[in-house]
UniProtKB/TrEMBL annotation:
InterPro entries: Hexapep, Transf_Hexapept/Carb_Anhydrase, Trimer_LpxA-like_sf
Source superkingdom: Bacteria
Taxonomic source organism: Massilia agri
Protein name: Phenylacetic acid degradation protein PaaY
A Pfam entry, by short name: Hexapep
Amino acid sequence: MVKVYEINGVRPVVHPTAYVHPSAVLIGDVIVGPRCYIGPLASLRGDFGRLILEEGANLQDTCVMHGFPGEDTVVEVDGHIGHGAVLHGCRIKRNAMVGMNAVVMDKAVVGEESIVAAMSFVKAGMVIPPRSMVMGTPAKIMRELTIDDVKWKSFGTRQYHELNVRSLETMREVEALTEVEPDRKGIAFDPSGMHKPKS
C-alpha cells in the first residue's frame, strides 16, 4: 500500500493510471497525473508548496520533491527525473530530463526538451532555454541539443511509460526464493522499447 499522508486537511491525489511504489512517501499537496511513475523510496513533501507531476512524468528511486509556501514545484508532461535527483520549488518543462543526483533549486526553470546532466547543480532562478544541455556545479549551458539527443531522451521516457504499465499489472510483494530455479526467466529487452519475460 502506498504511503500517503494528509496534513492540514490536504491529501495527495494520485490518478488511477499512475504507478507509485509502496515505499514512496506522498505528503499533503501532491498531485500525480495520468501515466506517471514514482519509483521506490521517492519523497514528495507537499507540506509547504504544491507538487505536481503532469501526464507521463517519471520520478525515479530516492528522488526528493519539495518547495516553499505559495510556490509550485512542477514536472510537466513526459518530464524525466533520474535516480536520486532533488527538485525544490522549480519547474521542469515538457519532455525535459534531470539526470541522476542532480539538484534543481527554487524558481529555476529547465526548458522544454532540455537535459540537466547527472550530478549538476542548477542554482536558484536559473532559466534554461529549450533544447539545452547543461552540466556542472554550478550548471552552465554547454550546447544546444540535437534531434538525436532529444530522440534518445524520449526513448528513455517511453520505457518508463511502459514500466508504469508493467508495474501496475505485475508488481507485487512476494517472498524471495532461496535458490535460482532451473531455466530461470529474465526480463528481455525488445529494441522497440518494450520489455517482456524471456522464454
